[in-house]
């Protein structure tokens, strides 16, 4: 069957499975069958560490088999629909309907229509209310479920927080209760800490469209859902039997997660809330994981992963030990964005000894006022010294991240971004005759849930376009590689990250109009989304407005460990900045 379906398909390696270190459990002998879905292409999904963690945990569990599904590209979707075939798992080519539970990793709001496409290609009704106990239970997890409400209509339940902490508890409880009717099953599963069952809650709205009440339907259902997280990160599971993909993927390397959480206090950062509290793995543990994973794969690059890796308390010792162990094995060690202060001292020396690909820094704003609003700890003097050190050590490529659309932002703050970029380039000329390659990435601020910005309004389309055009005119594109995030995608991400239950009908309408792969420029169609909003009678601008501190927010029922009063205090500080 597979040969007939994949004949003539672009990159068939996306769909055939059989990778190095793949799980080979007997599907038919398993008591619980779990379909693990990533709503994007194989290349993106296989670069996701969370997917690998859940895959490993489940396949290491007795009586459980876990097999993967990825969003099919347009050519395969066309063949599946023409031949009336179901989407199939990579490991055993099983249909989606053959599984007991199906878990989706929701890492980005613009993948939502791909979720519906996978369900539809699996012959599964899209709405949870239309699925009885004969269908698999549909579960959502990942960063986007910090506000699950826009997708509430399609999922039976969501796991809030780190799924690795709760997934086996959930599965074994399901095994005990699977003979129950669906309503009874969901009621019992809702008693597991971290499990949110949207059908067990009533939501009401006032005349302005704001939420007036959010209440559980039954007394046994929790009013607040508490986030689950791994308590002892040093002993948590890591997939040392790393799957080596059949084709090149986005991050084709070993990703070594050295810490989870972040000690910094940037007001705009939702990732801090998602991965709170801060936890680290010890140097000894990390060296052991790195050597095991390398031995199982032979990869030539190990990337240290975390929100702020240079804040790991043993980063110098860890980096030094990794470099020493792998120096004769032709294995490179790479770090993501680091802080300017870490480009001085011994850490700077160690970094200078590894492969000189480039440096990434995130000033986020050009002016001190805007950095104060963001709560960004960024010392300009230290940054210029760090950049000079990088240039002197032979680095020629620098990438800088900025944001626009901030509260109280003026044209002079945009001018500061242009001035910052010019100075970064000129500094290179002072230390070398060769010009630096300075790449500039400029994104729109999205005031995300569970941050101090959640009460702020988001810049509308016209405002974003004005600021992008202003910077294009100011920045010399012949000297710099300048990229802006698609402004319409930013608007859509803002709507769905800040939205409520009424957006489920919009997502369904957009899917029915052919929306797929909305995070990809070549597939994204804002016109389809505009038509979906109009058809559903929903004004997307409603979700971009600022909100009052006493308003019930769509995500207020989640207890993620971040005190809302402290967030409100930070919000008051940022709007008071002059």
Name the descriptors.
six-stranded mixed beta sheet, 3 domains, four-stranded parallel beta sheet, Transcription Regulator spoIIAA, alpha/beta, 578 residues, 35% helix, 19 helices
Overview of the structural elements:
This protein has 3 domains: 2-226, no CATH class; 253-336, Transcription Regulator spoIIAA; 351-502 and 538-578. The chain is 35% helix and 15% strand. The protein contains 19 helices and 19 strands. The strands form 6 sheets. Strands 2-1-3-4-5-6 form a 6-stranded mixed beta sheet, with helices on one face. A 4-stranded parallel beta sheet has the order 15-16-17-18. It has a 3-stranded parallel beta sheet with strand order 10-13-14, covered by helices on one side. Helix 13 packs parallel to helix 14 (411-431). The chain is globular.
Low-confidence stretches: none
Average pLDDT, all residues:
91
> Could you describe the largest sheet, including whether it forms a barrel?
6 strands, mixed
Helix coverage percent: 25-40%
| Backbone shape | globular
Structural class: alpha/beta
Radius of gyration: 24 Å
- What's the arrangement of strands in the largest beta sheet? 2-1-3-4-5-6
Distance between the termini: 66 Å
Estimate the strand proportion.
Answer: 15-25%
Helical segment count: 19
Number of strands: 19
Provide the domain count.
Answer: 3
């Amino acid at each position: 069957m597979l040969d007939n379906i994949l004949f003539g398909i672009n990159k068939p390696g996306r769909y055939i499975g059989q990778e190095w270190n793949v799980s080979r459990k007997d599907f038919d002998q398993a008591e619980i069958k779990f379909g693990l879905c990533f709503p994007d292409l194989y290349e993106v999904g296989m670069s996701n560490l969370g997917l690998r963690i859940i895959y490993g945990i489940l396949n290491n569990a007795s009586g459980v088999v876990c097999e993967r599904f990825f969003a099919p590209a347009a050519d395969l979707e066309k063949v599946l629909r023409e031949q009336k075939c179901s989407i199939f798992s990579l490991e055993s080519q099983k249909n989606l309907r053959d599984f007991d539970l199906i878990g989706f990793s929701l890492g980005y709001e613009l993948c939502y229509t791909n979720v519906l496409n996978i369900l539809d290609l699996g012959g599964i009704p899209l709405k949870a209310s239309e699925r009885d106990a004969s269908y698999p239970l549909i579960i959502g997890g990942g960063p986007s479920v910090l506000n699950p409400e826009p997708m509430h209509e399609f999922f039976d339940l969501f796991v809030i927080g780190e799924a690795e902490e709760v997934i086996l508890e959930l599965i074994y409880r399901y095994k005990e209760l699977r003979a129950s009717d669906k309503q009874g099953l969901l009621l019992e599963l809702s008693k597991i800490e971290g499990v949110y069952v949207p059908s067990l809650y009533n939501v009401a709205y006032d005349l302005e469209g704001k939420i007036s009440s959010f209440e559980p339907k039954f007394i046994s259902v929790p009013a607040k859902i508490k986030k689950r997280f791994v308590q002892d990160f040093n002993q948590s599971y890591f997939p040392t039997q790393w799957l080596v993909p059949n084709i090149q993927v986005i991050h084709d390397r070993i990703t070594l997660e050295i810490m989870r959480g972040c000690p910094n206090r940037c007001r705009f950062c939702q990732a801090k809330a998602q991965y709170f509290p801060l936890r680290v793995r010890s140097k000894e543990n990390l060296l052991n994981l790195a050597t095991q994973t390398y031995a199982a794969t032979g990869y030539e690059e190990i990337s240290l992963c975390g929100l702020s890796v240079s804040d790991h308390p043993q980063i110098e010792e860890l980096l030094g030990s990794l470099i020493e162990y792998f120096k004769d094995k032709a294995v490179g060690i790479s770090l993501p964005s680091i802080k300017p202060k870490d480009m001085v001292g011994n850490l700077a020396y160690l970094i200078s000894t590894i492969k000189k690909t480039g440096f990434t820094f995130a000033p986020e704003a050009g002016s001190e006022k805007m950095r104060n609003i963001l709560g960004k700890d960024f010392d300009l003097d230290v940054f210029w010294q760090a950049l000079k050190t990088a240039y002197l050590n032979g680095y020629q490529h620098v990438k800088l991240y900025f944001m626009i659309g901030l509260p109280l932002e003026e044209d002079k703050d945009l001018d500061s971004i242009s001035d910052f970029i010019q100075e970064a380039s000129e500094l290179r000329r002072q230390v070398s005759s060769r010009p630096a390659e300075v790449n500039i990435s400029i994104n729109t601020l999205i005031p995300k849930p569970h941050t101090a910005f959640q009460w702020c309004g988001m810049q509308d389309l016209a405002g974003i376009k004005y600021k992008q055009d202003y910077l294009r005119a100011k920045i010399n594109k012949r000297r710099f590689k300048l990229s802006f995030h698609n402004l319409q995608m930013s608007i859509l991400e803002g709507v769905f990250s800040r939205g409520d239950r009424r957006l489920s009908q919009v997502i369904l309408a957009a899917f029915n109009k052919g929306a797929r792969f909305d995070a990809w420029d070549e597939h994204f169609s804002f016109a389809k989304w505009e038509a979906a909003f109009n058809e559903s009678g929903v004004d997307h601008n409603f979700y971009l407005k600022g909100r009052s501190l006493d308003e019930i927010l769509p995500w207020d029922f989640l207890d993620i460990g971040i005190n809302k009063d402290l967030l409100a205090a930070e919000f008051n500080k940022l709007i008071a900045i002059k």
